[in-house]
Amino acid sequence: MAGIGAIIWKLAVALYLLATGVLGTFFKRGDLASIINHVLKGDIFIVIAGVIALLAGLFLLLEMFNIKISILDTLILIVAIIWAVFVIILFIQWIGSGFSLFWDSLQRLGVYIMVLASLLIASKKFG
Q1: CA distances from 3 to 9, 10, 72, 89 (A)
Q2: Taking CA 47 as the corner, what is the angle to CA 78 and CA 8, rounded to the nearest 5 degrees?
Q3: Which of 25, 30, 87, 127 is the most exposed place for a label (fewest CB within 10 A)?
Q4: Mean per-residue pLDDT for 35-47?
């Protein structure tokens, strides 16, 4: 059985993915929508990524109750790849801006990297 910290962490990742999925799918906004808008233009990409995040969050919650979903790792990996591309693009833009607003940018970058790490840990392939 996992410790209380691992349970809380998994719940946090699941809720984050659920909220991200709902915001992206139904409202075309939120972190995932921002990522997609940086890389691709078009609501269809936001909706597709939102549905994937929503399903990953739902399946991660179900897994907490010992309901195994075979495609969970694949869904989380897709979200993690989108997120990693976004972090790289953000970093390149940050360097290109001459490190203006250094501490604000560093804080934002740190948060995005924590989310990426959480996604990779949630995936059994990398965690």
Answers
A1: 10, 11, 21, 35
A2: 55
A3: 127
A4: 80
Residue 82's nearest CA partner among 121, 36, 46 is: 36
Return d(Cα 3, Cα 5) in angstroms, integer: 5
Q: What is the mean pLDDT of residues 46-75?
A: 88
Could you tell me if residue 107 is inside a domain? yes
What region, left, alpha or beta, does residue 30 occupy, with left being phi > 0 and alpha being psi -120 to 50 degrees? left
CA nearest 80: which of 52, 110, 47? 52
CA distance 106 to 115: 14
Residue 31's domain comprises 4-122
Number of structural domains the chain divides into: 1
Closest CA to 80 of 49, 46, 51: 49
